Amino acid sequence: MTPVYLSLGSNIDRYRHISAALDALADEFGELDISTVYESESVGFEGSHFLNLVVGVHSALDIAELSARLKQIEDDNERNREGPKFSPRTLDIDILLYGDFVGVEAGAELPRDEITKNAFVLQPLAELVPQLSHPTLRKTFAELWQDYDKSRQHLWPIDFIWRDMALPASY
Questions:
Q1: Contact present, 89 and 42 (Cβ < 8 Å)
Q2: What residue ranges do the domains of the chain occupy?
Q3: At residue 52, what are phi and psi to the nearest 5 degrees?
Q4: 141 Cβ contact partners less than 8 Å away, ≥ 6 residues apart
Q5: Is the pLDDT of residue 118 over 60?
Q6: Which of 31, 48, 79, 146 has the CB geometry, 3.0–4.6 Å to 11, for a possible disulfide?
Q7: In angstroms, how far is the first alpha carbon of the chain from the final one?
Q8: CA 42 to the chain's CA centroid
Q9: Which pLDDT belongs to residue 168?
Q10: Domain 2-114+156-170 is classified in which CATH homologous superfamily?
């Protein structure tokens, strides 16, 4: 089983889609490690605020199978793939890390570049696995978050209840 970290985001019917994604991930992978849920401003376009979080799972799926399964969960949540890259989303699930894999597989470049570019990815990842090292930068996620220019993006933690449980949580 490979440890995998996923970034989840939604800015359309946010609570419903994030909850549905967590349900689907729990059904697929069992136990989830879940960060705090953060609200953040849209990046790259004018739009409603996003809810973002990071989820850790253990998977026996290879990267291609995992990517296909995550796309299916997005599609099950009415994901529109016709719009521009930076646009509102019902649900976006990205593979951030797949074990120590470095490279491109099934169209996914890993580790995902957004880890060090977006506070809404790096902060919850650093919270969830602060001592884990980035596979290419050889710094822990806590160190990367400490060094991040926090004035670039604004995000704030929110209260989020999933399956009668306040997040963050291990489920």
A1: no
A2: 2-114+156-170
A3: -135, 150
A4: 115, 122, 125, 126, 129, 130, 131, 132, 133, 134
A5: yes
A6: 48
A7: 18
A8: 15
A9: 81
A10: 7,8-Dihydro-6-hydroxymethylpterin-pyrophosphokinase HPPK (3.30.70.560)
pLDDT of residue 134: 97
The neighbour count for residue 44, using CB atoms within 10 Å, is 10
Amino acid at 139: K
Here the tokens at position 165 are: 């449980």
pLDDT range class, residue 36, cuts 50, 70, 90:
very high
DSSP string, the chain: -EEEEEEEEE-SSHHHHHHHHHHHHHHHHS--EE--EEEE--SSS--PPEEEEEEEEEE-S-HHHHHHHHHHHHHHTT---SS-SSS--S-EEEEEEETT--EEETTEEES-THHHH-HHHHHHHHHH-TTPBPTTT-SBHHHHHHHS-TTSS-EEEE--EETTEESSEE-
Q: What is the pTM of this model?
A: 0.92
Q: Span 93-120, mean pLDDT? A: 94
The pLDDT confidence band at residue 47, using thresholds 50, 70 and 90, is confident
